[in-house]
Amino acid sequence: MNNPWLEIPSDDYENHMSEIGQSQILNQLLEKHLNQYKPKKFALLGCSTGNGLEHIDSRITKTTYVIDINPKYLEITYHKFHKTLNLKPYNIDIQNTALDFRDIELFFIGLVLEYVDPLKSLKNIITTLGKNAILSLVIQKNEKTTFVTSTKYKSLEKLSKISNQVNEDNISSFLLQNGLELINRDVIVLNKNKSFIYLNYQLL
């Protein structure tokens, strides 16, 4: 069975995320983290079509690794930004493929762990982190509602087959066992049934 992410047109994804206000929040969070941590080497998992990459200052961030399971998304991202950023695209399924780069200073993961095996994926990600690196996660918490918000972009409904609520405690426990300490946790309420939790961990 093909991963549903391979069947969702980029326009559907972009319009869906914009309509429900989630792309704007992820964009703001990414900008905040880039400005705060000023990484020389940065990685973005689930880059989609490049939302937020316009905030990268190439004078500071010398290399940006963009990772996505959908090769068409990566192609769009590369076309948008390769002239201004030193992009390294990776078309992989993070839960089943190890990464071969190292010394990442900031690794940002926004709304990806809900669609993969979180611990298998994080195991592959941890190997890329340099000393004192920041691992930033954005996860979605639902209460009495469907995981994927309903819009007119029906292709997104395919994601219900693979989406799961992420267990925050399990993630924190796993990361602590692997040398990462939680340094910040915050909640953004989207509506009465949905919120984003963003978590920053630091490799000790």
Automatic annotation (TrEMBL):
Domain of life: Bacteria
Domain Methyltransferase type: residue ranges: 45-135
GO molecular function, a single term: S-adenosylmethionine-dependent methyltransferase activity
Protein name as catalogued: Methyltransferase type 11 domain-containing protein
Protein's organism: Pseudalgibacter alginicilyticus
UniProt lineage: Bacteria, Pseudomonadati, Bacteroidota, Flavobacteriia, Flavobacteriales
